[in-house]
Amino acid sequence: MTSTIESPQQEDHVVLLDSVPYPAADAAEPFIVASDRRVILAYPIAEADFERFGPFDPDDDPFCTVLFPDAMFHRLGPPGDVDLEIHPLAMQGLLGYSVHEVVNSSLAAEIAAVGSALPALRHFVITFQSSTFECVASDYTVVGVYGAGEIASREAFSLVR
């Protein structure tokens, strides 16, 4: 009789993060500023988060800036809200206009396996109207929530120096 030894399998588990403002629906597109190991994402926040991250003036268009240090991978592209079900993590609970962390991420494990002396890696996914942002990095920090995209843009560029 033979026995098989099963290796532990990576199981992607998607969890929502509440400490990051959620993206606005039907708003300006997110943008990325990146250097070799830092990624900064800026995007308009959902109106439901105005009170929690405000206060804002009535004519403000609040944007959030999030820093991902020690980034080993990032991308911004399809799918968007309409076709989010085609994303490989859709069946694990990926939601539109939301901020997620993928626990036990197969992508983070794959990147860690080829890197040497890497910090512990985490996998983040933020979904927007027309795109999805993914980043594998050591952590994230909400740098700030600003009244306009121009302010968020200036802050993002100052962080890559």
Please outline the helices and strands.
Blueprint: E1 13-16, E2 31-34, E3 39-44, H1 50-53, E4 63-68, E5 73-77, E6 99-103, H2 106-114, E7 122-127, E8 132-137, E9 141-146, H3 149-159
Antiparallel strand pairs: 1-6, 2-3, 3-4, 4-9, 5-8, 6-7, 7-8
Walk me through the structure.
- With 161 residues, the chain is an alpha+beta fold.
- It has one domain (13-159).
- The protein contains 3 helices and 9 strands, in the order βββαβββαβββα.
- It has a 5-stranded antiparallel β-sheet, with helices on one face.
- A hairpin with a 4-residue loop joins β7 and β8 (132-137).
- The protein is globular.
How far apart the termini lie comes to 62 Å
Gyration radius, in Å? 17 Å
Counting DSSP E segments of at least 2 residues, the number of strands comes to 9
In quaternary terms, these chains amount to single chain
Structural class: alpha+beta
Can you summarize this structure?
This protein has 161 residues and is an alpha+beta fold.
Question: Which properties best describe this structure?
Answer:
alpha+beta; disordered N terminus; 161 residues; globular; 3 helices; 5-stranded antiparallel sheet
